[in-house]
Amino acid sequence: MRTTTIAPTHSGRDEVNEIVEAMSAELDQLARVLTDMIHEKIAELDDDIYVWTLQSVRANLGLIVTLLREGTAPSSAQAPPEALAYAKEYVRRALPFELLGRAYRIGQASLSRYWLERLHARTDDPDDLVDTFGFLSDWLFAWVETLEHQLTEFYMREREQWVRGAAAVRAAEVRALLEGARVDVHETSKRLAYNLDRHHVAFVIWSDEADRDAGDGAAVRFGEMERLAVRVAASLGAHAPLIVPQGHHLACWTGFHEPPVLADPPLAEDEDEGAGLRVALGAASPGLDGFCISHREALQARRVAKLDSRGDAPCTAFADVALDVLTTQDAGEALRFVARELGPLAAGDEAARRLTATLRAFLDEGSSFVRASRLLGVHENTVAYRVHRAEELLGHRVAERQLELRVALRLAQLLGPEAIAPPA
Q1: Same structural domain for residues 29 and 147?
Q2: Does 257 share its domain with 351?
Q3: Rounded distance, CA 95 to CA 283, Å?
Q4: Per-residue pLDDT tens for 203-244?
Q5: Secondary structure class of 278 (helix, strand, coil)
Q6: pLDDT score, position 218
Q7: Exposed, middle or buried by CB within 10 Å (0-12, 13-18, 19+), for 391?
Q8: Which residues contact 154 (CB under 8 A, 6 or more apart)?
């Protein structure tokens, strides 16, 4: 920390005393001038916080007058209660500390100009001017550094408590809602800062890496998840999502006055940001019940996405996997169903995979050998041969149990061959 090392000359001391007395007589007026300057230069500070700024500036000026009058070193200064209250108000309004630092620097520059004007009016001697103003500038610099250090620690402590407290309140409110508690929708909406009387789209954000590493060193990456949540909400046409940590994932909601048309949300703006994060969305649903239903759907979509053996799709919508949700509720029964229906085709070797892929294409294309051949890029006779070979292994014609066959093929693709063993 920079400290004052040179005291003013005797005449300079007199000039400092005169400035201090002038400040004391003009304290309220000077405080308003500095406050106006701060609000003029920092657009993020609105009229609602003006009184807080004024009270902090007034208290700080009073402290400066007292310390200079007593000849006390600026490094011994203690931030006045009004300055601490002002910093706390920044926390409450979610204003970054950088703005508070700017406010002090603007006040420092304005007060320096005030002192220089008073010194010019007091003396024409350039040596006296340089000596006295140099002392005052060094003193004020050290004073601002001292207070800024104290305010930084205070702001960080308050912000941590505020964030934890707000997150805890949101988590408790949301947990009660999801557990079916009867609540006053209007009052709960106010506490959550989220309107519950709308159409809701819930989504969850997670990282498979974090899910696998459940120890203290888990790379939960909540900061990246929160930024992604804001982008997802924006891509859906909403703003200010409700975000609540749940274990290693984030539970999020966005609200709409009309049922939204959902689009796939973006997961990253560049190659690094959001890499490895995944999203699962529920369908839009209205009101308090819809808040809970869409969240349950998002969790179910996440469950299916984590089951899917075909990779790590970045976004999974419940509407796209609703049938998968139903057919995988009992994972053990689903595996047994696949094994019973597919028999040797569930083996998972290269030949079985080739036959099941052909069957899926054949059924998806309306049992057309020609269209299936185009989709697969092989001759239609090859498709016909594979279908007939699959029927031999199944023990029946494809048309005989087509619904069961289609569901079994879908489950086999979803769960992966390594999870399925054909019956002995």
Answers
A1: yes
A2: no
A3: 34
A4: 999 987 755 554 433 444 777 888 899 999 988 888 889 998
A5: strand
A6: 40
A7: middle
A8: 79, 84, 87, 88
Return all residues near 193 (Cβ < 8 A) that are at least 6 apart.
240, 242
SS3 track for 45-107: CCHHHHHHHHHHHHHHHHHHHHHHHHCCCHHHCCCCHHHHHHHHHHHHCCCCHHHHHHHHHHH
The answer on 241 and 158 residing in a single domain is no
- Beta-carbon contacts of 236 under 8 Å, excluding residues fewer than 6 positions away, are 201, 254, 260, 262, 263, 265
DSSP 91-135: HHTT--HHHHHHHHHHHHHHHHHHHHHHHHHH---HHHHHHHHHH
> For residue 424, what pLDDT band results from cuts at 50, 70 and 90?
very low
Q: Is the pTM here over 0.70, yes or no?
A: no
**Residue at 106: amino acid letter:** I
Going through 292-348 in order, the beta strands assigned E by DSSP cover 315-317
The answer to the question of residue 339 being in a domain is yes
Residue 414 included in any domain: yes
Which tokens in the block code for residue 11? Answer: 């005449």
Max Cα-Cα span within the chain: 111
The rounded Cα 46 to chain-centroid distance in angstroms is: 25
Q: How many domains does the chain have?
A: 3
Same domain, 141 and 50: yes
Residues 350 and 273 in one domain: no
What type of residue sits at position 298? Answer: A
Do 203 and 262 touch, CB atoms closer than 8 A? Answer: no
Q: Coil, helix or strand for 390? A: helix
pLDDT tens track for 318-355: 999 999 898 888 888 888 898 898 988 888 788 888 99
